[in-house]
Amino acid sequence: MSTMSGGMWAEKYRPQTLDDMTNQTEIVSRLKMFVQEKNLPHLLFVGPAGVGKTTSILALARDLYGQGYRNFTLELNASDERGIDVIREKVKNFARTAAIASPVSFKILIMDEADSLTSAAQHALRRTMEIYTRTCRFCLIGNYSENIIDPIQSRCSIFRFSPLDEKDMKAYIMNIVKREQIDIIEEGLDAVYQASGGDLRKATNLLQAAAATKDVIDDVSIYEVLGKVSPERVRAMIQRSLKGDFLEAREILRELLIDQGLAPDDIIRMVYSELMRNTVLSEQWKVKLSDKVGEVDYRLTQGARPEIQLSTLLAHLALAGEEMK
Amino acid sequence: MGNREAVSKLNKWIKSWGKKPPKKRAAFVYGPPGTGKTAAVQALATEKGYDLLEINASDSRTKNRIEEVLGKAAGQTVTVFGRPRMILLDEMEGVSGQKDRGGITAISNVIKTTRIPIVLVATTVEENMENKFRPLRSKATLIEFQPVPFGEVYKSLERIAGENGVKVHPEVLDTLASRSQGDLRSAINDLETVAKGKTKVDPRDIEWMGERDRQDYTPNIINRIFSARSLWEARQTISQSMIPYEDLFDWIYENLPLVIDEPGERLQALETLAKADVYQKRARSSNYRLLMMKQVHAAIQRNGMPLSNFQTTETRDGVMIKPIRWLGRDKWGALNGELRGIGASWTYGQNFWVLPYFREPQTKWRYITTYHSRRKMKAVAAKLAVKTHTSTQGAITETIPLLRIIYNADQENADKIDAWLGLEDKEQDYLSC
Question: Which has the closest alpha carbon to A30: A62, A74, A60, A72?
Fold first, then answer.
């Protein structure tokens, strides 16, 4: 497998079978039961990023169908193919034809980031799930079950994936460290854990980026890698705003949104965490500004234009800078 | 099974279809999920010998489509075999406002003239029926299904477990029944999942199960908004609810004076609501000309020059800034930089700056000038998304920045990645810069 996954460790070390999986043991043993029985219900996997949701269903598919599993699975990412039309066409077309020359009579449709489907699309999905149960099982994956409509939750077995704890995460990382023969000191390992927030994919990418640039990985090398990615420009944007240079800050915002193609909610997330860490802002302003961040976040969910909404945040920052002079 | 009253009401309505159609030619069946709404309609239709035509949300329900399918069907009272027909329009709550435009009105028109019974089923509680379904309510017999009582869910689970030869611990039945919150179908699904491949189920076996989240109906959402401890929490509540913004606005306006009775606070709250309403409609003010002039003056003064050295005039297209005498190279350069920063440009030959009142939106230019690099970025991200099982956006935000570092550190590894992702030359350039 390692030659297939080329130079990215996150893929190279992704568990291939359910037996390979060392975390989420309760869920994995339940999934193995499904494989044994050669039958499964519709599934809803929820939990934070990088804890093994997609990996488990891919592993289950591999265990169930063997190496030809790709013939019997369809992987869709809802955030790339949102909308009711996709559900009505693509999903139906896949779901309605029976699995031929397969060990079981059904296929598996994997819908990643299903919580980003519009509610109309979810409604369309739910009956498709029911009608084609005989020929297709659905595995919906998302971060929050709150955004999945009740009728779908009601039709699925829900599996809640918990964030990895420090011990499991470090064990996973140390396995890669050994296999790739890299030097990492305890502080580096701590930093990987802290920075990744329990997200294995992120942790592995961070580790690899640090290993690519340094011979020995310590906490500084991890934070250097982090500094090179987008938050640096976000920080610059906040600095310009606080200095009252709104127009310049807006240019940086455009760079992030357009040139770098970041998603507006990712920018909001970064701005928020930068604000909380900022040492210049008073506590009072931090409270006020998080309120504004929440407001912008909300407006975006209402379909408002990202650049305009985000620039109001910059205007608030400029006001904060002005008043704190 | 539960909902005896609702089922008998439905039964009575079906019986009312004699030689002539009854006054209400449609029945509107609604209630929370998993309470047997669709099952009841299907069962009764079969029992009474009807041929049931089911139309649900996986079918397109635009105005035209409704008229085409429903209109035709509603005219044919019997099948070719002489069986009477009935139409079931399931999942009404999923009729989409945008893609299914005009759908509700079309349905309501068909109901007026239909010669065969039409049953509409919606997973919703009464409070949510207000707006969208208003045209249908008056034309239909309303039949409400309620959450299946705990005891009935419990008994059903016990019976099903028994029939399948599985011994289920009472505590497990209790947990499954209570977490279902009246959704019998979900309870049965859960039972099936925990009992799969077992002859005995203990409380230990259900520790891993997640709770189902329930979306509340509007009054609960409003309550959560008013009782939120922070604006953030209230916003979260709002963004997670699926109530349309305009409806929410009306609800808050209606209830705000009830919740906030301190006069000062009430005023402030209403003022804010009113502003939100106005901002959508307010036209752009024309103070910008004045502001622009101020900006120019400030720029000149920041460079330590007297305003009297300049002639500043408002023209039709913008502010004209003309130095009265030669400023000298350094001063000209400094001021030029300052003025460019606010959008002015030097007009060669004429020897003045012009600051246009309106700048062309820069966003558009930015999209044009970065077109090629964005295309490469998206192409790389799409390939990466497939290989790493993420969304394209996830690849752009999370993976590409780190991949760049990995890619540029080691040529041999970069070649491997090129081959793995199948990157074209242009796409390789994007990653390596």
Answer: A60
